[in-house]
Amino acid sequence: MNIKITLLLFCLALTSHGQEIDCFDPETYEYSLSDKFEAKICSSYLLDDFDELKDYIIQAHPNPYAYVSKHELDSAFKSAYSYFEQDRTKLEFAFKVNETLMLLKDPHTRLNVFDLMYDLAHYNSGFTPLFIRKIKDGFFVVSANCYGFEIGTEIISIDNIAFKRIHELSKNFTICEGGIGQAMEEEAADYYIPTLFFAMDNPEKGELKKVFYRENGLTDSTYIVTKGYKELQEAEDVYYKDFETSIESTFFLDQRKAILTIRSFSPPFKRKELNCLTDFFKIVNKTGINEIAIDIRNNGGGSLEFSEYLLSFFFPDGINTPTNMIWKASDLSYSKYSERTLKWFPKIIDRKNSKNFDDYEFFKATQTKKGSVSTFFYHDSIIQKNLKYVYNGKVSVFINGNTFSAATNFAQAIRRHNRGQLIGTPCNGSERGSFGNTALVKLGYTRIAVAIPTIRYNYDNSFIYSNYEIIPDVLIHQSLEDLKSRKDTFIEYFLKN
């Protein structure tokens, strides 16, 4: 081949290789190497993924129109389709998805924000593990395990971004049942780290960020360094170390009071935690405790059965927290276990579930044809096996904006049956019911993770979708003074009253 032609072809190849790609197939190696904050995904893939999301919502959600009209939701879908007719970045796509999901006003239907953050990050991305909570109109450090700030230090701004702005942006990831609720103000703190990451436009590890803060009435500034993924995980491990134990009990024998802290109704070792509940009430009855508090602050919910087992220590005949359940049969809601068991051992599974009317009705619902909606009403109650440990004394329940799902079921049951008082701040749940049994799905091309519920629990048979949150009988917020002195405002109130 003529050397001039060879050089010409080589130059053309270099020119072609250097051309900027307009948009990417998100499943390609080239996209994986790109800056995902800047790289645009081709419109066709976005539209396919949004179609998939819409199908999940319409086919699996028990009632996507509980808090939004069909016209409003259809208009939102139409707006999103129009938006995705142009190539967009993964972040732009995710934010539009989030905007659409928030319209449903269901906290069980949401974008997985942390999954998005980790997906957009690269090996050298930087994070800002500052653990901060809003108290009144300020934002204060609640853990000194990173950057050395004293607990109670007020953070004013980071990287020239007012922290009040970070808080408002974080609220875009929070959803209250029915869309109305003070819980958003508390829940926003859970998203400060990813919000800072997005707002700083994917900072590099080791970048200096200027922080203005206020301590002992004096305003000052310092520089902090963004941390790598491993350092972020280490900081979170230290911060959440106190939350590792699912159940803790504290006794104040001189005051004849006790506190049972339950951080999850979906504990890692269910039998162990059930035994912990029994042991707690054994001690309560044996020592003559006449006032207890059940602390379910920051309890994200879990098993309805676990919640009802706890309630059985207060109601000797047992109690159902919902009066009925709505099941939407879909690919997401079908249980593979129940499908296979029905296929292989139909008589065994039928005999097993028929022992309890509610179990049997639920089992039948799981076998209904895809697309059908089943409502079944609870009749049987869970019977307390250890009747001698039933507690008849005074009960308080600590709740806050991060009390969620099955934990709100417990709180509303205590209130509905006049069994005790609720202390704290409004929890993230409705007084009428809650969605649940969420399935986490990842959309086909973008791999955006979204949670979709498959059932609805109603607390009465009116089938009213109320947006009234569960308000405590005694309203208490964590005080700055108690935070600085390492005191728990809720416990202080409980012991003094």
Major sheet details:
6 strands, mixed
Give a count of the beta strands, DSSP E runs of length 2 or more. Answer: 23
Low-confidence stretches: 3-19
Walk across the major sheet and give the strand order: 10-11-12-15-16-23
CATH-level-4 superfamily name of the largest domain: 2-enoyl-CoA Hydratase, Chain A, domain 1
Average pLDDT confidence is: 87
Large-scale geometry: globular
Give the DSSP E fraction (strand runs of 2 or more residues): 15-25%
CATH-derived architecture of the largest domain? Alpha-Beta Complex
List its traits.
single chain, 4-stranded antiparallel beta sheet, alpha+beta, 37% helix, 2-enoyl-CoA Hydratase, Chain A, domain 1, Transcription Regulator spoIIAA, disordered N terminus, Pdz3 Domain, 3 domains, 6-stranded mixed beta sheet, 23 strands, 497 residues, globular, 20% strand
How would you describe the overall organization of this protein?
The structure is a single chain. The protein is an alpha+beta fold and 497 residues long. It folds into three domains: 22-120, 2-Layer Sandwich (Transcription Regulator spoIIAA); 132-239, Pdz3 Domain (Roll); 242-496, 2-enoyl-CoA Hydratase, Chain A, domain 1 (Alpha-Beta Complex), CATH 3.90.226.10. It is built from 18 helices and 23 strands. A six-stranded mixed sheet has the order 10-11-12-15-16-23, with helices on both faces. The protein has a four-stranded antiparallel sheet with strand order 7-6-8-9. Helix 16 (406-416) links the parallel strand 15 and strand 16. Helix 12 (304-311) packs parallel to helix 16 (406-416) and helix 13 crosses helix 14. The longest helix has 18 residues, at 43-60. Mean pLDDT is 87; it is low at 3-19.
